[in-house]
Amino acid sequence: MSTDGAARRRVPLRSTCAEPHHCPRPVRMKVLGQVPYFAGLDESELADIDRRMVSLSWAEGDPLYEAGAPADHLYVLAAGRVRVTQPTPTGQDVLTDILTPGDLFGALSSLGEPRYPESAEAMTTACALRIDPAAFRAVLTEHPQVALRVLDDVAGRLARARSDVGRISTGSVAQRVATTLLRLSGELGQSRADGSTLLQVPLSRADLAGMTGSTPESVSRVMSRLRQDGVVESGRRWTAILDAERLREIADAA
């Protein structure tokens, strides 16, 4: 292995919280302000929403909910990271998303999801705010602007679902992998002094396959080529994007 390659593989991993914790009020208020549903609300309005939510915490590996269970809560992630997986017909779980603070997730039957379509599990010690259907209905009634954003979001999800079907059916595996890595870089990446971007998450080939509608074998071939070309480097619990411009070229290739 070259000196540069050895240096890349010694990417330091930040430590995470060792024990579950509850979310202090300043953290809750900050993340609620980041949720698109609640954008533009003043502090008193956010406080009203906050008091309707329950603060909960989970240790690494703990499930928040499982696919197929009744959809009875929405969550706002306040701290840590959460992995979202969907079951396949063969009984395997494939990674579909990695959530960060400020992300809204979960489902409610009143929003068209009678059961959770996916499972959510804490990747690190995590804290989230949870709201039940009755409390969420009260929020929609008392804050009409939130209700309008919810309608927009439901319509947007349908449009994105149609777009994803087209992307998966027409784009090459390399395009889909590049697009996914760029999206994760924007959501989770840490900029480094050498210009690279570090994704400090365990991201297996099976995970990438699930997120790109491909197979682990195809993803492995693409990642090997990206490493050989100096576009990415990776270890067991991290991936570094070394050449984002080249990755964008691959994602946008006709």
From TrEMBL:
**In what residue span(s) does the Cyclic nucleotide-binding domain sit?**
37-157
- Which keywords are on file for this protein? DNA-binding, Transcription, Transcription regulation
A GO CC annotation given for this chain: cytosol
The Gene Ontology terms for molecular function here are: DNA binding; DNA-binding transcription factor activity
Q: Does the keyword DNA-binding apply?
A: yes
- Which InterPro entries does this chain map to? cNMP-bd_dom, cNMP-bd_dom_sf, Env_Response_Regulators, HTH_CRP, RmlC-like_jellyroll, WH-like_DNA-bd_sf, WH_DNA-bd_sf
Q: Where is the HTH crp-type domain?
A: 171-245
The protein's name: CRP-like cAMP-binding protein
Name the species this protein comes from. Georgenia soli
Where is the organism placed in the taxonomic lineage, from the top? Bacteria, Bacillati, Actinomycetota, Actinomycetes, Micrococcales
